[in-house]
Amino acid sequence: MKQITPMRHNLRTMSGIFIVIGVAILVLSFGPLVKDEVWFYLKELKSQKYFLAGNSDGEGIKDSVFARYLSKRPVLIEPVNKEFSIVIERIGVNAPVVSDVSVTDKKAYIESLKNGVAHASVSKYPSKDPGNVYLFAHASVNFWRLGKYATVFNLLRKLDMGDRIYIFYKDSTYIYETVNKEVYKGWNIMPLTRPVIEPILTLQTCDPPGTTLNRMVVTAKLIDVLE
Predict the structure, then answer these.
(1) Which of 28, 38, 107, 178 stands 20 to 30 A from 162 (CA)?
(2) How far apart are CA 34 and CA 31, in angstroms?
């Protein structure tokens, strides 16, 4: 019987280790994106509704892993704070907003995005007055490098016209309705600098997730303010 030399054995062992490491990196990289897609598919399949707490007429259960994957009951979302945060029922987003973040200082905004969705420093704050509230966040696969909120906008492209977006700011609730969804190639400042004649909200992220090829931009108009 042919014997395996120590060198060949070592090469096989190293090859096996590299394969395991490669598979682990793929799982770590694309696992969160796959998880989000699976959750959204199951939610739609079950016709499961997500409601901002107080918006549901019936009884629901608190948002949790069990509620998202195993239950069919409506899920109630409690905003993480009411000082500055965002809730999007349709895609299960519930995250703080970090105010006054530079859109040109990459180091600064990468650090800010570890703590939530970023509010562009050159944009307006939520208000009844005409203006563009510009928020941006990751749609990424590198969650271990980019922090807890690296995948918060992974499903932004799933929003449809009419879907509502809630912004909590200084204890008031600003309710926006999605009116447009576009993809821009590369870095395009038009959605940030465009003139507006009404209060709007702009959400921006990378598209496809984990790349810088395009920008997914969702525009929503203010329809109500609860104070």
Answers:
(1) 38
(2) 5
- Chain segment 145-185, per-residue pLDDT in tens: 566 787 889 899 999 999 999 999 999 999 999 999 999 88
91 pLDDT exceeds 70? Answer: yes
In a domain, 68, yes or no: no
In a domain, 73, yes or no: no
Q: What's the mean pLDDT when you consider all of the chain?
A: 84
Q: Specify if 47 maps to a domain.
A: no
**Tally of domains in the chain:** 2
**Helix/strand/coil percentages in the chain, nearest 5:** 30, 35, 40
pLDDT at site 112: 87
- CA 44/CA 90 separation, integer angstroms: 10
Query: What is the average pLDDT across 31-55?
Result: 86
Q: How far is CA 14 from the centre of its chain?
A: 38
- Structural domain boundaries enclosing 26: 1-34
Regarding whether 19 and 111 lie in a shared domain, the answer is no
CA 206 centroid distance within chain: 10
